[in-house]
Task: inverse folding
């Protein structure tokens, strides 16, 4: 169900100070995970929330939302990720929803093989103990884990049958799977179906995202901030936004 994973990182305020002024979305979910920095979310439904280091904002655009994400700092590092997750056709025109998840609400599991794993969505099992993250009950059944491994440490991450899964290494390097395929920094690796994937950190350790979700199996048509199932639906989304109807349908 994953549409895009965007990493942003800069110490130069000129790169991020403009932020993301008000803009629309329809038909999918956006997940913003901030590693370093401070941003403010506001939307036309009246939601307002501070996104600070280690926190997540999970937004389902549904039939329409107009929001902004603006920096609340004039210096220092801004680093994080935005993930786009598709919605099935039956949910694309549901009311929009937004959730603020502060860092202290995201559980951290100390891994037996060394390191730690933050459970943002779904759950993680180790030694018979299941740790559930703050996000669950979604139709795509997403797993979203942030993993930190010291040099040489390893972890086995279970993957639900039928899910698509991938890794993204954003610090260090790792080797993945039974055939120990190397995954360098700033590289993503698609995972083959299986019960679990073994990840071993390289000499400098590794920090990575593990993402898995249930495939939707429907046509995907994307144009700018809209993701629907047909060109006609995209054209309707554009008309609704230009005419102001997107706001009306989002509030109804």
Result:
């Amino acid at each position: 169900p994953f549409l895009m994973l965007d990493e942003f990182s800069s110490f130069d305020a000129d790169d991020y100070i403009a932020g993301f002024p008000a803009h629309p979305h329809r038909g999918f979910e956006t997940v913003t995970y901030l590693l370093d920095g401070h941003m403010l979310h506001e939307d036309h439904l009246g939601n307002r929330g501070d996104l600070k280091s280690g926190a997540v904002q999970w937004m389902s655009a549904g039939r329409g939302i107009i929001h902004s994400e603006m920096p609340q700092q004039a210096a220092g590092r801004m680093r994080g990720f935005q993930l786009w997750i598709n919605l099935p056709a039956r949910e694309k025109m549901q009311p929009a929803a937004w959730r603020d998840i502060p860092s202290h609400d995201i559980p951290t599991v100390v891994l037996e093989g060394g390191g730690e794993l933050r459970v943002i969505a779904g759950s993680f099992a180790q030694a018979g103990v299941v740790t559930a993250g703050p996000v669950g009950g979604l139709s795509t059944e997403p797993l979203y884990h942030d993993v930190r491994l010291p040099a040489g440490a390893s972890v086995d991450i279970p993957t639900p049958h039928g899910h698509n899964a991938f890794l993204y290494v954003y610090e260090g390097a790792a080797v993945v799977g039974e055939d120990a395929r190397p995954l360098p920094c700033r590289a993503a690796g698609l995972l083959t179906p299986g019960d679990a994937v073994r990840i071993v950190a390289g000499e400098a350790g590794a920090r990575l995202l593990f993402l898995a979700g249930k495939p939707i199996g429907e046509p995907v048509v994307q144009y700018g901030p809209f993701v629907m199932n047909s060109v006609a639906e995209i054209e309707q989304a554009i008309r609704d936004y230009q005419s102001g109807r997107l706001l009306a349908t989002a509030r109804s």
Remarks:
- Helices lie at 13-16, 231-243, 245-251.
- The chain has two domains: 2-103+225-251, 106-213.
- The chain has a mean pLDDT of 95.
- The two ends are 27 Å apart (CA to CA).
